[in-house]
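Re: that chain you flagged

S.,

Sorry for the slow reply, it's been a week of failed gels. I finally had a moment to sit down with the sequence you sent. For the record, here it is as I used it:
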Amino acid sequence: MSGKPIIAQDKQVIRFNDTGQQWIAIWYPPEEGPPDGKRHGSAVVCFTPDNQIVLVSSDHGNTWGFPGGRPIDDEDWLTTLEREVNEEACARLEHATLLGFVQGECVQGHEQGLVLVRALWCANVTLLPWESQHETTDRRLVDVNEVLDCAQYPPGARPIYQRWINEARHIRE
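Prediction finished late last night. Pasting the structure tokens below so you have them in one place:
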């Protein structure tokens, strides 16, 4: 991507298409607490001790994403995060910082009206021996400067991901 990246601002509406539906996403700072919507779990930018970022794949390395997932029963945001990091990345969560919440609303498509909220985190992790489990088939490590070129996300949602990575990098420095 050339030029200065576009980064989502607090409560700025970001519009994008995903799987044939139109969505709006809004970043909320953590001190405001989660916005209204269905709790959709946690996702995390995981840093290893040597400053690499962990990405995972559920399709044998065709696409890559950040560890994360939905809560089981009444899990809180952090418990969901810890479990998903262990299950998807085969890693132990050492320290996590909540960076914000993203509220996504489907405004056109078969899920129109659905409002989801996901907690976005930055974490230090210790990698455990790799063992493919649950839906995750692969794990890879990438440099923070390359992560947005390696990870899969709806192209129009890049400002949200750019903010997430920038804030994670700032916490890490």
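What I noticed first: The beta strands are 13-18, 21-28, 38-47, 52-57, 68-69, 91-108, 115-127, 138-143.

Talk soon,
D.
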